[in-house]
């Protein structure tokens, strides 16, 4: 049985991506870096993609070396923290409502118990 497989690493420059100018740690030149997206995958028979992933990176405009996009990671962490804080606020509000309902139900039960005692003549 003969199986053909291939890997692909395709780099696409983002049309509205960031541009930064600084020294490249790979080639040592001061260059413009462009935000890109790397599409990685493994194909079986050149048709079926076994697995794949995409990530945003910065690419040196001189030597085309790829580097992690730290700004994008910071933005994702900030968004995750913001969503976690919002969820904590919602959970605190749910707990407060639950506590208020519990207190209200307790008061109703106490009133009902007092009424029953009064009806029994105690």
Secondary-structure map with pairings?
Elements (H helix, E strand, L loop, with lengths): L4 E9 L5 E5 L6 E15 L3 E13 L5 E3 L1 H51 L2
Antiparallel strand pairs: 1-3, 2-3, 3-4, 4-5
The count of β-strands is 5
Helix count from the secondary structure assignment: 1
**What fraction strand?**
35-45%
Residue share in helix: 40-55%
Spatial extent as radius of gyration: 30 Å
Can you give a write-up of this model?
With 122 residues, this protein is of the alpha+beta class. The protein has 2 domains: 68 residues, no CATH class; 53 residues. Helices cover 42% and strands 37% of the residues. The longest helix is centred in the last third of the chain and has 51 residues.
Descriptive labels:
single chain, alpha+beta, elongated, 122 residues, 5-stranded antiparallel sheet
Describe the structure concisely for a colleague.
The chain has one helix spanning 70-120; strands spanning 5-13, 19-23, 30-44, 48-60, 66-68.
């Amino acid at each position: 049985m003969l199986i053909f497989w291939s890997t692909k690493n395709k780099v696409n420059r983002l049309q509205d991506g960031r541009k930064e100018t600084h020294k490249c740690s790979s080639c040592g030149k001061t260059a413009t870096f462009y935000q890109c997206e790397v599409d990685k995958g493994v194909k079986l028979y050149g048709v079926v993609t076994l697995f794949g992933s995409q990530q945003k990176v910065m690419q040196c405009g001189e030597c085309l070396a790829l580097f992690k996009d730290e700004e994008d990671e910071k933005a994702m962490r900030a968004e995750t923290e913001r969503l976690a804080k919002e969820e904590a606020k919602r959970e605190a509000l749910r707990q407060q409502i639950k506590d208020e309902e519990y207190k209200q139900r307790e008061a109703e039960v106490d009133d009902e118990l007092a009424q029953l005692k009064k009806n029994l003549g105690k």
